[in-house]
Amino acid sequence: MDKMNHLKDLLLFDVQHLYSAEEQIISALPAMIGKANNPQLRQALEEHLHVTEQQRERLSKVKQMLGSQENENNKSLGIFSELFNSGTKSKGIEGLISEVEKVMGIDMSPEVMDAAIIGCCQKIEHYEICGYGTARTYAEQLGLIDVAQLLQQTLIEEHDADERLTSMAIGNINLQAEMGADMEPAQEQYRNSTPSNSNM
Ligand SMILES: [Fe+2]
């Protein structure tokens, strides 16, 4: 990799890693949806998969914007080409997803599995919030307002997703996991119930 000499190089690097993160999350979410038992949680994960696909598209747009600006400045495309074409992978998200897969392979009651999935998802959300917040601030400092706005849009969505997960956890899912085997008779009703109040 070429030496990075400018904050914009770092922004390009971070955007590439965010793109990789979103791609990995899109690949991982279907298995998490399949493991989720609570209908509200399943619905939230399905909706987040759709949102994540939009976030990936938004990052594609950011990459194009940064690339076209690189051209306008008549700078070398060397580092840009390397960063965007070499398949740079987010090792952070890779690790968090491997943790999710490990957790989903553990024998748990459906209620405990739901609580565990929320916990894993929130680790991923917090990682993304950190990444998007940093990249957004770089873009702002570089005067790349359009790029900053796109990154901010995704940052808001990640915060919303995190808050929704918290609402579900403290609203009933952690309690269901806490009650565990004591609530056997209610399990079928719990699994088959439709969301009664959205946490959106
Ligand atoms: Fe995301």
Strand content is: under 5%
What is the name of the CATH superfamily? Ferritin, core subunit, four-helix bundle
**How confident is the prediction overall: mean pLDDT?**
86
What small-molecule ligands were found? fe (ii) ion
Proper CATH architecture: Up-down Bundle
Distance between the termini: 43 Å
- What kind of sheet is the major sheet? none
Q: What is the 3D form?
A: elongated
Which CATH class applies here? Mainly Alpha
Structural class: mainly alpha
Total separate domains: 1
Indicate the percent of residues in helices.
Answer: over 70%
Oligomer: single chain
CATH topology: Ferritin
How many beta-strand runs? 0
Give the low-pLDDT segments.
Answer: 72-78, 81-85, 194-200
Helices, by number, come to 7
H and E order: HHHHHHH
Which value, in Å, is the CA radius of gyration? 19 Å
